[in-house]
Amino acid sequence: MLDLSNMSIAKVVIHTIPERNGDRTAGTPLFAKTVIKLPPGAEVTFQKRITESLGKSSHGIEVAIERDSLESFFNISASLMHVDDAKFLADSQLLAVKLSQCQANLNLAASKLIIVAGKCGLGKKRFLVAIKADLQDGFTESNDGLAHLNELFLTPSQKLFKMAFLSEGVAAQSVRGLYDKENYTAHLFDHLMTALETKSAAYYFYSSFFGTSIADSDKKKTRDFFDFTREFINSSTLDRDEKLDLLDALRVDLKGNSAIIKVDDFADQHMREDLAEAYVDFMKEKSFPSGAISKDTEFIKQRLKRRQKMKFGSGVEISAPPDEFSNLVTIEKETAGQTIIIINGSIESME
Questions:
Q1: What is d(CA 228, CA 260) in angstroms, rounded to the nearest whole number?
Q2: I want to staple 119 with a disulfide (CB 3.0 to 4.6 A). Which of 86, 124, 138, 255 is the partner?
Q3: Closest listed residue to residue 179, CA positions, set 65, 69, 87, 66
């Protein structure tokens, strides 16, 4: 999980990304002239905005770093974490040029690209974040940049922005100018994404510019674990009560306090040996990771709260809290066309 505690900000630059030219070629960015040193109040605003966008309760997602060449966002940004102000100002221009080029085929309004470097987490790990802020909200910039920053981050209605966040997990020198992507994690926020879906995220930003893939985010992997496990349980030869018990166990595990999910752990804790082996093989066929993944239930939290239903051919339905269904509803006997059910509770009302 991304640890944004103890955040401190060391450097900020603001570049202007223009609209594309009339011939659909990339516009030339207006580069920042200085590195901004934030006063305490403005730094707190930055910290809050980043945390709200990428923190635990946000729609931000972890993404997989795909491009790590010398000219990639990853390698440029990893380098920017370790340079002085003059080098930071100069090399951050590479990111502004990259963004302008990536959106040359799109008819987008002018925007600001804010590059922020600092440290965060218990270990005070280095990070760099690139924020693209659209200008429809009428933001202005003063000579020192602070008026613009206050307007951008303090206005509650500001929604139109995207954020590419790179954090250093292991500090290591580059080799021939290249950094190892395995030592870093990447996170994305895009105002186009929702709590339930990532497909709307702008491809030009997360892929062409950021050089990442959203396919392997923790939110998506947690949702896949839930969906694939349900699919396996429902397609198994288990009787109805056993299926209900496993579905209850799945919901309980995902709503529990554990920060990780692991296929083997779920199988070992809730399934007999032959079923567990079949389940592990099934998840392998689905190309689901065999190791532990960070649990993030943002995409499925409403489904975890949903009451579990039992439907009958006659049109009758019974529903109960998903965590308690097997304790509240007992199938006593089932014959052709008839089912005898015992419900733990008395009738309180009828509608």
A1: 17
A2: 124
A3: 69
CA distances from 314 to 243, 307, 336 (A): 22, 20, 12
* Distance, CA of 49 to CA of 163 (rounded, Å): 10
* Whether 145 and 290 share a structural domain: no
Phi/psi class of residue 107: alpha, beta or left (left: φ > 0; alpha: ψ in -120 to 50)? beta
Could you give the residue ranges of the DSSP H alpha helices within 136-272?
A: 146-154, 203, 218-235, 240-255, 263-270
Quote the pTM value.
Answer: 0.66
Are 241 and 153 contained in the same domain?
no
Between the CA of residue 229 and those of 81, 165, 282, what are the distances in Å? 41, 31, 9
Closest Cα to residue 63, out of 116, 2, 128, 123? 2
Neighbours of 331 (CB within 10 A): 14
Using one digit for the tens of pLDDT, what is the confidence trace for 187-219? 988 877 765 566 677 899 999 999 998 766 788
Three-state DSSP state, 212: strand
∠ CA 234-240-244 to the nearest 5 degrees?
Answer: 70
How far, in Å, are 129, 156, 157, 226, 283 from residue 59 at the CA level?
16, 17, 17, 19, 26
